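REQUEST ID: PR-0412
SUBMITTED BY: lab tech R.K.
PRIORITY: routine
TASK: structure prediction, single protein chain
INPUT:
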Amino acid sequence: PAGSTPLDFAYTIHTEVGHRCRGAKVNGSIVPLTYVLKTGDRVEILTVKQGQPSRDWINPHLAYTHSHRAKAKIQQWFRQQDYEQNAADGRLLLDRELVRLGVKDVSTEKLAQQLKFNKVDDMYASLGRGETRSSQIANVLQVALKPEQEDDAELKLRETVRRDDRSDVQVLGVGSLMTNMAKCCKPVPGDDIVGYITQGRGVSVHRSDCANVLRYHTTDDNRLVEVAWGKVDQEVYPVDIQILAYDRQGLLSDITALMSNERINVTAVNTISDPRTHQARMKLTIEISDLNRLSKLMTRLNELSNVHEARRVR
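STATUS: complete
OUTPUT:
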């Protein structure tokens, strides 16, 4: 089109020629990339082996490009670069959030599906751009981590069928039994859980990544049963969290005030301070109803002055 430049011409030849363009000759003479081509001009594009476009090329005030094709190709290149960087940032953000919540073995495909993304990388890019927030992740984890809910029972043992590899005999699972929450890992609704049939105390419910469960898989695998969260009506569960912070005056007061404002009960506090480094390590046991509230609390704690890190203890 009228007003085209050597860059427009380069992108007309091939997208990669445009990206790698670093100069041009018109009728045998070096010209700037903003040179306006005329009918009959003989154009030679000067390229490098590895090159990339400049954002200046799509600045209308600098007049490097005129054609819609050239501008679209340049914008597409930068969108792809931004996408990849945002996706990388988002992956780090999700990993950090899962560590903060003490959650492991999450299906990112299922998580992306619950958040209405076609691809996992699209979810990562949205996190990286700040369009998807950590509170949304926590909400979806409530659904994504647990099996389909039963309609009756707070916590119900599903009947499972196991096949003994050495015979055709089916080993049926168990029905409803008394359940209790394991004190070693303190599961809360939204955590992936598994049951362990105890001697005389019903079924002990553990997080699936609990160290004891991993040991049971090798020593007492036949006593592990599948369990699922059912409907929970504002029950609270004990959760251990750890706070690393600069040991300043008023730190504990600020933390307890935050807990009070969030209406979260603290049942135990243990603080270790190092007078040489002025660092404090605090371990608190709190009562929490679900992962979403825990995520919000972790965010608020990390926003406090001089707090280096607040996370759930596994």
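NOTES: The chain is about 35% helix and 25% strand.
REVIEWED BY: pending
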